[in-house]
Amino acid sequence: MALAAVGSLAGCKDESKGSAQAGVSATTADTAELAKSNAYITAANVGGRTFSNALDTYQQTIAPKLAKQKALSDYAVVPPLKVSQIQTRLQTAIALKGSIPELDQVARDFAAAIDAFVPVNNGLANYAESKGFLADGGAKAREGDAAYVASLSRVAEAETKFLDQIEARDERLVREAYEAAPEGSVERYRAGIILSGKKAMNEVVTVFTEPSNTAARQQFASHLDEMAGMVEKWDAAVRAKKPEGCAILQSRFNSVIAGGRKAVQNAEQGRFNRDAGAPPVGLQFEFSILQSNFASMINELNRPFSC
Predict the structure, then answer these.
(1) Cβ contacts of residue 231 below 8 Å, gap of 6+?
(2) Do the domains 182-307 and 8-181 match in fold?
(3) What distance in Å separates the CA atoms of residue 223 and residue 54, rounded to the nearest whole number?
(4) Domain spans of the chain?
(5) What torsion do the CA atoms of 26, 8, 216, 192 make, to the nearest 10 degrees?
(6) How far apart are CA 272 and CA 293, in angstroms?
(7) Cβ contact 221:259 at 8 Å
(8) CB distance 255 to 296 below 8 Å
């Protein structure tokens, strides 16, 4: 079983210079870039690492059977609907006015790779969905294997470059917003929560897949503690202005912290040790829940009217 971390990106909000709603500030003059940046982030969050994960799965589960001329019990390509969703979001972002040199070229390269991949993927999609491999013994899958892997590899590489670039920019903007926000402000704590949360999620795959890596687990726990401290300060700052606080965001923050701390406990108790019989399905489920909670947190921060 392969676990892959999927980072969620904090979008920009049109606020006065120096504010940090969801970690990023903007002025009226930045409107076009703001809209384009948010569109890129939406495309990234919708797609995640779809193509890279599909390539890993294909190479681990399907390619070996094809190479050994073994009968296929299952066969899949990237769902055409998912490809179309990513393609549409990406094309929409590229077409918007404004220029973001850090992202524009890698986005165009990614879009071009998807365009080239679509006919290759579609050519095998009906075959996969109708289980044609059961009727022909996998003959069509073997015939199309080399072209499919080559095209999927190119789009996965372009996807990685796009996501790495957008994640680096996202973190830079959040950090700049944190540093620009006044000490003790709600905006500063919000940005701080995102930063500490991202640092924790950078360690999450290691926590689940390398339970003997005590250093990584301690680092993960330390980032969660840092995040929890930021949440407490954020809550106090929010309630100073609005006594009822912001229950929805507080819940989203705490679900990430609680899930992470539970993962630390489970790792310490040996529940993630597959050599000792830890069930892969249970491990995958717990990992997915934590990833989903973090994505929900970022999505709530990105909502236009989130408190």
Answers:
(1) 189, 193, 250, 253, 254, 257
(2) yes
(3) 30
(4) 8-181, 182-307
(5) 30
(6) 20
(7) no
(8) yes
pLDDT digits (tens, 9 = 90+) for 51-95: 999 999 999 999 999 998 888 889 999 999 999 999 999 999 999
Q: How far is residue 129's CA from residue 77's CA, in Å, rounded to a whole number? A: 9
Locate 67 and state its tokens.
Answer: 């190479």
* CA atoms within 13 A of residue 164's CA, in its CB half-sphere: 8
- pTM metric for this prediction: 0.79
Burial of residue 237, with CB atoms counted within 10 A of its CB: 0-12 exposed, 13-18 middle, 19 or more buried: middle
Predicted pLDDT at 161: 98
- Enter the tokens of residue 28: 């009226």
Q: How confident is the model at residue 293 (pLDDT cuts 50, 70, 90)?
A: very high
Averaged pLDDT of the chain: 88
Tokens 């998912």 -> residue: 82
CATH tag, 8-181? 1.20.120
Q: Give 182-307's CATH code, choosing from 1.10.287, 3.30.460, 3.40.50, 1.20.120.
A: 1.20.120
